[in-house]
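call fold(seq) -> tokens
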Amino acid sequence: MMPAGGGETIADLAVLRDQGEVFGPGASTPTAWRLRADTDGAVLAFAASGS
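ret:
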């Protein structure tokens, strides 16, 4: 959802929350940070590769 809204960082989630009528409810910033903290390096590398 974040790339569709033009976001690139966790801080950009606020923009998506302000466009809820377009994208639906977005994750809170603390939730996104918890997800990031629980994600291992292989998953992050895969996500960064765009595959």
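The two ends are 16 Å apart (CA to CA).
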